[in-house]
Amino acid sequence: MELADYIRILRKRWILITGTVVIAVVIAGAATALMSPQYKATTQVFVSTSTDNSSASDLSAGNTFTSQRVKSYAQAVTTTSVLQPVIKTLDLPYTVSELAAKVSANAPLNTVILEISATDTDPTRAAAIANAVGETLPKIISDVEKPNAGGTSPVKISTLEAASVPTSPDSPNAKLNLALGLLLGLAIGVGIAILMEVLDTKVRNTRDVEAITDAAMVGGIPMSESKADPGLVVQNDPRSPLSEAFRGLRTNLEFVVAAHPKSVIVTSAMASEGKTTIASNLAIAISQSGSQVLVIDADLRRPRLSEAFGIEGAVGLTDVLIGNADLEDVVQPWGATGNIEVLPSGQIPPNPSELLGGNQMRELINAVEAKYDLVIFDCAPLLPVTDTAVLSKMVGGAVLVGAAGKTHKAQFSAAIKTLHAVGSHLFGVVLTMLPTKGFDAYTYSQYGHYGSYGDIVEPDPSPAADAEK
C-alpha cells in the first residue's frame, strides 16, 4: 500500500482509532488511580581514600583506587550485610529481599559520589531507610577494606547530603502514564484499522475493482434510501440520484459497446448481487434515448425478469429454443414509448446449459441483433452454473455486476477469469449497493446533493389556476 492508502484507512477508520485511544487512556488513568503512591528519598555520600603522605603520585593513585571501588560499593548497598542492620535499627516490616527491591545506588560517571535511594509508600520511612543505609554502608566497607596487617581502612565514606522527607510521590507519574496510554492506544487502533483493511475480503469500492481487473468501471449504483431493491427506478422516479446513476451507466456502456455486436449479457459472480435490477433499468434508460431494446431473461434457473417488469412469464425463451413458439408470439412490449420489448424465460428446463449453448440460441441471437438496436440478456451467476459462460461466447460482450460490501474479491476475480477463459469480451464492471456516504461512496451517489438542477415545474391543474389565466 502507498501513503495515500494509509491516509485513507486512517480517515475511514477514525472512529475505531479514536475509540481505542480513549479506552487506552481511560485504562491508563484507572491503573494510575489504583496504584499506591511511592515516595523516593536520596542521600549522597562521598568516597575518598586517605594516604600517609600527600604527594601528587599518592593522591593520583588514591583517586584511581576510589574511582574503581565506588561501583563495587554501589552494588554492596543491597547486600544482606548492609540491609540487615537497617531492618533491625528501623524495625522495618520487610525481609532483606523485599528491602533490596526498594533500595538502589548509583555512581555518576567520573565521580566518587554515591547516590543511595530508597522508595516506600511512607515518605518518612523512605527518608529514614536512605539515611540508615548511608550510615551503615561506611561501617561495612571499613571492615571489608581494613588492611590485613591491622590498622584503619584507607577508604573513607562521608555523608554529603542527607535524605529529606519527600513531599510529592515519585510514582505513579500520571502524565507519563496517560501519555503512554495515548500512544499505545493510537498504535493499537492504527494496527487494527490496517489489519481490518488487509483482511477485508469483500469488494467495497472502485479501488478494489481496479486491484482485481483492468476492465473499465462503467457504472456505480448507490444503495437506495430504503436499502431494498429499487425496482424500475428509472421509470418510477426518473429524477432520483439512482436514476441518474443508471443513465451514467447507459452513457458509458454505449461507448464500449459501439464497436461490438449489439448484444450484451448482464451477470454476476453469485446470486442476489443486483444483475436483474441492472439489466431492467439499463434497458429503460437506453430506450429513453430512442433506441429499440430487447431484454431477454436468460436465467433459466431462477428467472426474475418477468416479475421485475410485471408481465406474464409462463411462455418465453425456452419455448422459442425448443421450437414450440415463434419469437414474435412470445415477445411482450413494455412501456408507453414502445421502445422496450421483453422476452421472459418461459418454463424452467431440465437442461439450461444445453439450450443456451445450442444452434437454436445462436440463430436467435443473430435474428434479434438484426432487429433491435441493443439486446440485453439477464443471465444466471457465473460461478454456481456454466449457463452464462456458454452463452457469453455468442454475444458481443458481458457486463459483470458486483455488490459492494457483499461480493467477495476471490469470487469476483474467479468470475472475470471464467469470462476470459471462454473468450468472452468483458465490457466493464458495475458495482451496486454502493454507500451514499463515507469514503467508499461513488460519484453519482452525491448527485442529489446539488439540489433541483433542471427540475421541471408541473402546471397547476386546479380550476383556480385556469381562472387566473
From TrEMBL:
Compartmental location: Cell inner membrane
Entry's EC annotation: 2.7.10.2
Broadest EC class assigned to this enzyme: transferase
Keyword Aminoacyl-tRNA synthetase appears in the UniProt entry: no
Presence of the UniProt keyword Transmembrane in the record: yes
Principal localisation: membrane
Record GO terms (molecular function): ATP binding; identical protein binding; non-membrane spanning protein tyrosine kinase activity
CDD domains named among the record's database cross-references: BY-kinase (cd05387)
A Pfam family matched in the record: AAA_31
Protein topology in the membrane: Multi-pass membrane protein
Domain Polysaccharide chain length determinant N-terminal: 2-90
Keywords per UniProt: ATP-binding, Cell inner membrane, Cell membrane, Kinase, Membrane, Nucleotide-binding, Transferase, Transmembrane, Transmembrane helix, Tyrosine-protein kinase
Catalysed reaction equations from the record: L-tyrosyl-[protein] + ATP = O-phospho-L-tyrosyl-[protein] + ADP + H(+)
GO cellular component assignments: plasma membrane
Transmembrane segments: 14-35, 178-199
All copies of domain AAA, residue ranges: 274-391
Family to which this protein belongs: Belongs to the CpsD/CapB family.
Alphabetized NCBIfam families for the sequence: eps_fam
Protein name: non-specific protein-tyrosine kinase
Source species: Rarobacter incanus
